[in-house]
Amino acid sequence: MAVAKHTDFSFSGLIVSVLSLFLSAMFVLSSVGPAIVTDSLASTNLVSNTRYGVTFPALNSLENHDEDSVIAIGSSIIQASVDGKCISESMKNNDIDVYNLAISGANPYTEILQIPALIRADPELVLLDLGPNGLWDFKSDSDLDEYIQFRFTINSIAMQHEDIGNWTDLIREADRPWIAFNNAERIELTQSYSQKSFELWLQSEFSEHFDSIKFEQKAPLPDDENWIEYLMQPNWPAPNFELKTQEEVMKYFEEKMPRKATQGVYNPKLNDTLNHKSYEYIISELTNAGIEVLLVATPHHPMVYPYLEDGQLDNFNDTFERYSSYDGVKGVNMFWEEWHDSMFRDRNHLGVNGREYFCQRLAPIIDGVLEGKNISDIDSTIGTINLSNYLEESCKGSGFTSIIDGQYKFIQAESYSNCARGEGVAFQDRWEFESSSDNEGSGFLHALPEDSSQYKGGIAGSRLDYQLEFTTDGSYYVWINMKGNSYGNDSIGISWKLQGQEYLPIEKYESFGWSSEGQWEWEPEFNREPMIINASANDDVTLSIWMTEDGVMIDEILITTDPNLKPKNIDPHQLINQQLNCEGSDSIWQAQFDGEVTIEAEEYSRCSYGEGESIAHQWIIVEDINSSQGAYLAAMPDERVHMKEERGPGLHYDIHFPASGTYYVWISMRGNSYGNDTVGLNWNFNETDGNMSVIASFAWNSYGQWEWEPQTSQVPLNISVSGGDLATLSVWMREDGVEFDRLIITNDASFDPYQGD
Q: 575, 607, 638: which is the final residue of a domain?
């Protein structure tokens, strides 16, 4: 088994290499130990977060970087908010790059050490985090003291002698041991991380030569090609609230906020704290060096504010306004804006959605500040914006209302009236317009990007709204033409609501199944009926579709009053010209007690459309001088469709019986083969359907002539009634191509239609 990557490997060579590397490392460690530790802090798991070690390496890089810069510093709140790459690309000034050097847990006091290096980096503008969390009274606390020791030690290891500035006057006596005021103290502070750093360095070196040695670099180093981009876009934490339901988030605030509201982060002081003094030092040093400062306060989750008392944050407002009035300083206070809750990762940090919006808000402000404009002239709405409905406002539709005035109404998916971005992690997946050779209309909508996202537990995906107005009372069935290529990208949620009311429970439509081959299919297909909208005339209804899995595609929506539609078996577009209802003459025929009544086929009282494959079939009136009254009905189109499982189009004749007795039915019909010669006959009496009789007309002696059936059996369909009863005789299309001319109804059991014809 090969131990090394090199083909000329030998054990003795390995020993020599290891010893040489070890001796070299000892020499290097004695002279440049702080440099190795600094690299380890910034790129490995030496500490819990590589960002703690990035400050001074970053500022040294930016000092030597050719591009002009805007640098953001502060706590994790500003770290979570600033996407430097997005802001840089959104600014009109393309010659300036925005960098995010904020640190988790930072407060003004811990950030004063970097100011000399920040001034040497000479940015055009510094974004300084100033929220209520940075204005609390600085009191000794074991956890806080430990954090200060940690931050001061790490910064001291990376600092140079020229980084010692006027900030030393602010350092508490208890914190001075963690500051390196000379090289000897720097080496001493380095020792606590030296051994582990050296081990990681060796591991890194050996991993380049031996496959069996693994080394994971958590973040780039200053010499790496992606270092500069990393300074613009830090590694943000994974989603949190974005993955929770509304109920889970509310429970969090109910449990946490009553106590949190009493703590220093929401009870800022007006002045004279160590944090205030640190802010004043930072601002004065930067502005005295000719560097403009933009104070930034971002909003907190909207559920925070109800837990705060009136006036509780007045000291924050006053301090922000006071500092913003200093020469060389401007302020952007968004803290009081109400942003949609899906923009937040947690109580006070923006998530991916909020960061995207913050980028669009901040880019023009930075452009304006660099041009010398006043903030109010750039954005006069700062502090007053209400984005509680941001998901709807950021997504626009056509505003069109579809009038549902036919039995079959098709709506193209891309013609949605309104829309909304998804909540939480679902915000990034959107309905994108695409087109292909097999879609209806101009194109279809595709849920993208496709990364197997599935929204469960109450998180709403991107929503499409279709405004509907109904002209007729009734029950309307909703079909969706859609597709997916796996069980992981084939589902949507669908629901509806009347104007001003809440949605009914969301139903799930899925498109992938054992018979799927990537084709468009009308859903729902398996094990369920389509969703029903019960509407009255002039009702305004919103039909909505939610993305529940990305990758799914939707082409069009069908709204129909036909409860028997099975679009799997027929293209429903063939039905679009059908009338809303199949209508007849409304005639009621009178049976005769001692005689016969003849009914022409085309004089039916009512009619009904077919089901399944026959839904597009119709009884067509054909003029023919050789038929009774010069016309007959033909079952068209003649496509050799047999309606056995489902009923074909029906013709219904209402018959009134003046006298009691048994009445018999004869039918004149014809076909030209055994495949187009049958109809079904049955009675409906007292709203109950009788058994259907299949009547055939083609036989060995047929040559296309009209024949009275049932000719062979001589046992016609019959019904027994009392005087005054009303019943309905129905003729059902069973095979297309069959032709039907007239009916005879008689109470004579021995009646022979050929003798009476």
A: 575
